[in-house]
Write a structure and sequence with these properties.
Elements (H helix, E strand, L loop, with lengths): L1 E6 L8 H15 L3 E6 L10 E4 L17 H19 L3 E5 H15 L3 E5 L3 H7 L8 H13 L5 E4 L2 H9 L8 E3 L16 H6 L6 E6 L8 H14 L3 E6 L4 H10 L6 E5 L6 H5 L4 E4 L10 H7 L4 E4 L2 H7 L4 E3 L4 H13 L1 H19 L1 H16 L3
Parallel strand pairs: 1-2, 1-4, 2-3, 4-5, 5-6, 6-7, 8-9, 8-11, 9-10, 11-12, 12-13
Helix pairs in contact: 1-15, 2-3, 8-13, 11-14
Length: 389
């Protein structure tokens, strides 16, 4: 089987949806599925993954996470690029990521007479409201919801990266249940695993005498980074040797300035971007992991990386964190920064409890979210759409 993956994003970029795209393609390859990724000219190629890119535009050198005014014409170029690739590749399935990818995949699928599958992390309008880009009420979000509802009608199947979003698609967006397939984010437990050597990194980052809590992901208020910094002084007051390793991008300079302004430079390190291939060793520096993401329905793939590394994990409570972490995770109420601080400090204060929780989370990651099982489910979706037994 051949699959054309449409990725309207600067792939590969060491963050959430990019990791899902990459790991899906790698897992499918193990099932003898050929995949080609069509994406923007930005990003970097990944060894072993066939990639076609839009023509290079010299004035577009960077795209922010989220909306950009460059996106509409980049998507138009991506449609042309993907169509050219399809003529040579002759895919059986067109698999679009994100809502823009769902539109492009549906257009290509109709032109090629091939089924389109959309891979969605959450509601596009919901994400913009949660991030403060749009108000919760008014004309603009109303028009956005109408457009999103129409887009959701087009693909043959919608892959929802959480059960909460799968329910939202059927209950709020009126998508027939037969077209919705819950397919959570996954993790490769052979890559993300406990016990990786990281003493060189510990020395380079001057963490030898520190009790490290790790965060690895997008640096933004939407991901709860502001809440984490607000909570941090209380963690240090309880555990003086605590150190927050804040890893990811963008907005590194803004968060470094905020750390300095709050007098936290001695207990917080903002590393900037960490390449995905290096992520397991950087996570090995931590005793505890944290992800206070503020969305209640959007996927949170970083939790799985934490779990597979055997890290006790703190997150804001919500349908996604409950589904992913299960009973072994530590959850606190959304926006309750004092509770967030107490939870982080408590896990550092009780290493035995932290180890037990980390082991349980590792077992859950392997059994419930390993890519071998998830890729088989994805292949079943392709076969059902294509009519292949």
């Amino acid at each position: 089987m051949r699959v054309l993956i449409v990725a309207p994003t600067p792939f590969f970029g060491d963050r959430g949806c990019h990791v899902r795209i990459l790991e899906e393609a790698r897992a499918l390859r193990r099932l003898e599925v050929d995949a080609v990724v069509a994406t923007y000219h930005l990003g970097r190629d990944v060894s072993g993954l066939a990639t076609v890119r839009t023509p290079r535009l010299g004035w577009v050198r960077h795209l922010p996470v989220g909306f950009s005014p460059h996106k509409p014409y980049l998507d138009a170029l991506l449609l042309v690029t993907a169509a050219r690739a399809a003529r040579a590749f002759r895919p059986d399935i067109v698999h679009g990521h994100l809502h823009e990818g769902a539109v492009l995949a549906a257009i290509l699928g109709r032109a090629l007479r091939r089924p389109a599958v959309a891979d969605l992390q959450g509601s596009a309008i919901g994400e913009m409201i949660d991030a403060g880009v749009l108000p919760a009420r008014g004309l603009r979000p109303g028009l956005g919801r109408a457009l999103e509802r129409r887009v959701l009608r087009w693909p043959a199947r919608l892959l929802a990266s959480s059960s909460a979003f799968a329910r939202e698609l059927t209950e709020r967006w009126d998508v027939p249940a037969a077209r919705v397939v819950p397919l959570p984010d996954g993790v490769d437990p052979d890559v993300f695993r406990p016990g990786l050597p990281a003493e060189d990194l510990r020395q380079a980052l001057r963490l030898e005498d520190k009790r490290v809590i790790v965060y690895l992901g997008v640096l933004s208020a939407y991901q709860g980074v502001d809440d984490l910094l607000e909570a941090w002084p209380a963690v240090v007051a309880a555990i003086p040797e605590a150190h927050l390793l804040l890893m990811g991008y963008p907005n590194e300079a803004r968060y470094r300035a905020r750390v300095a302004a709050r007098g936290l430079a001695g207990s917080v390190t903002v590393t900037g971007r960490i390449e995905y291939k290096d992520a397991p060793r950087y996570l090995a520096l931590g005793e505890v992991a944290v992800s206070p993401k503020r969305s209640t329905t959007e996927a949170n793939g970083k939790l799985l990386n934490y779990m597979a590394c055997g890290l006790p994990t703190v997150a804001y409570d919500g349908p996604v964190s409950r589904e992913v972490l299960g009973e072994a995770g530590t959850r606190v109420s959304l926006g309750d920064t004092p509770a967030l601080a107490r939870a982080c400090a408590a896990l550092l204060a009780d290493p035995r409890e932290g180890k037990l929780r980390g082991q349980a989370l590792r077992e859950r990651a392997v059994s419930e979210f390993g890519w071998p099982a998830l890729s088989s489910r994805l292949l079943d979706v392709y076969r059902a759409c294509h009519g292949t037994p």
